[in-house]
Write a structure and sequence with these properties.
single chain; 223 residues; alpha/beta; Rossmann fold; 8-stranded mixed beta sheet; two-stranded antiparallel ribbon; 10 strands; globular; disordered N terminus
């Protein structure tokens, strides 16, 4: 049974608890961020919520989206194409964080791009969502292993780039990036989302030859 206190708290929903989603859940919970975890089968979200404990809770995908102020879509791009359209109205007015990348891996682990060079994953995702959402591309510029391992790096935090034109989305992204243990830096607006997407974005970890940048280095790369 859903917890009726959900309406009294600002929640971040994480839809998808694979490598990126589960890593973000752990980082957010460690910083005290209330999260609603959702997976299509429900089983993986429940197991992760039980592992993490409060302030994490497992809910259905629809309920998590409806109750959250911010929704992190930690899904593969093809999965988003299936998951978003039947739930489009649930996203109305929400901050939507999109970490998607147009990538696929073959049996040997080689990565390839799944969209034309001129098209970003962000443009595909945004086209599936209502016009009144607050969209930000974030949390997909480095891999899950480095997302976990570089959090709260000292003495100089690692940077996570984000891209958005929306004030509320930018404020939310910066708060969550800091909660995850990184320094936020805006790479540009929606039109610049491709710069932080793998495998070909120049500000994605692929394009940076695996480097994790501090703020000075990231500003230089951005320029």
């Amino acid at each position: 049974m859903p917890d009726t206190t959900a309406e009294q708290t600002s929640f971040t929903a994480i839809v998808g608890v694979g490598n990126i989603g589960s890593t973000l859940a752990r980082l957010f919970v460690a910083s005290g961020e209330p999260v609603l975890l959702a997976s299509t089968d429900g089983v993986h979200a429940k197991a992760l919520a039980e592992e993490l404990g409060p302030p994490a809770r497992a809910e259905s995908v629809d309920y998590a989206i409806a109750q959250a102020d911010t929704v992190v879509l930690a899904l593969w791009l093809d999965a988003m194409r299936e998951a978003i359209p039947p739930r489009a109205r649930l996203f109305e007015g929400k901050v939507v964080v999109d970490p998607s990348n147009p990538v696929a891996f073959d049996a040997t682990g080689q990565v390839s791009r799944t969209l034309p060079d001129e098209q970003s994953a962000g443009s595909v995702v945004a086209a599936l969502l209502p016009d009144d959402i607050h969209y930000v591309k974030a949390f997909g510029s480095i891999g899950a292993v480095d997302l976990a391992g570089a959090a709260h790096r000292q003495p100089r935090p690692a940077v996570l780039f984000y891209a958005s034109d929306d004030d509320l989305a930018m404020t939310t992204a910066e708060r969550l990036i800091r909660a995850a243990g990184f320094e936020p830096l805006r790479a540009g607006g929606f039109a610049d989302a491709g710069r932080i997407e793998g495998p070909s974005g120049d500000l994605n970890q692929f394009g940076l030859n695996g480097q994790l940048l501090d703020l000075d280095q990231a500003r230089a790369a951005l320029a």
